[in-house]
Amino acid sequence: MDIKSIIKKKRTKQELSNEEIRYFVGKYTKNEISDAQAAALMSYIYINGMTEDEIIHLSIAMAESGDMISLNEISKDIVDKHSTGGVGDKVTLILMPIIAALGIPVAKISSRGYGISGGTIDKLESIPGFDTEVSSQGFRDILEKTGICIANQSLNLAPAEGKLYKLRNEIACADSLPIIAASLMSLKLATGSDKIVFDITCGNGTYIKTRENAKKLAKLLIRLGKRLDKQIGCVITDMNEPLGYCIGHNLEIQETIMALQGKMPEDLENVIEALGSLMITLVTGNKNQAENITSIKEVLKDGRAYEKFKAMVEAQKGDIRFVKEPELFRKAKHIMPVLADKAGIVEHIDADIVGSIAIYLGAGRMKEESQINRTAGITLNKKIGDTVNSGEVLAYIHTDDEEKVNGAIHNLQEAFQMTDRKVTVKSKVLEVLQ
Question: Of 36, 105, 226, 335, which alpha carbon lies 20 to 30 A from 254's?
């Protein structure tokens, strides 16, 4: 058996065996297969697809490429949530403390951001001292103590998935449904989570562009879950417009803290409630969405969710002063308004353009080695459905690089599409599947 024969087999649309997939994953994890060879195989998978058996074999092989954690010894009701990402997506940061505050343990392995989708780990590390590099035992200890832990994938959980995640982004295979499904399932297998809710984002602000493909992925994940003895639910959400008002690391952490204190944008609230209700259902069996949402609102109103976020930050060595006083976060040197050049009603805000501008300003990375500027980003002043007067502020750009100001302002103006017709604001929640 060798990698060239495996590449040729997938090129000719043949099904790979469990042994062949394990050979590839094992050798690639140990750097005994080149990135060029792995890229070739990923490209043929992208073109020719995979059977469900192949996806399961790949999921298990990636999960077993590193440490495996069994969280059942802490609680059989631990629930996980994972998102396919998007512009302004800080849902994990808000939702996990809410669920933990309801007495449901939540365990999350996250990653750094690439492209227009910011990473949960990058955002958490904006809190000075916050330690995402906990050991497997540390992960268990924090979870047992506080009921919540969010850690970086670098603690040797599914290292093969981490390598392939970076590779598929670099070779424009990020939207391959079989690879996405295997990637997501491998992380869940590695952490021992039996109850999982997936936020499947779709639109131009993420790598799954259509609702049709998002639904295909959701159904695939549910089928895989049944075969792997996992309880899985999926929420399909719209990512054509940035979620919330803030894009950028310090900015999104500040918005997270405000949301946990009860000041949450409506679009973000809709997504939080849909995902949270489904998480509660998986654990308690209560399918009454209204009751579940009431529980979510209660822990936000009485401050338990905010306190749980503080407990997580403290347990992971973050400077709690920044949670108590968000104004301590450093601001960009240049915060400039983007003005409307005509009056109207906001009909569309292109999340892809907004995300690309955020990267240009320094808030994102296109390569692993690229540095991010935690002060850089964008704050929206207007959302879809808002009325705008000529000369009114649409948004603010935040950057330390004065030379980028004018270009960013012009391009961000282009991201806003105006109309003189009434605009109906729709929920970001498109569909719930279980």
Answer: 105
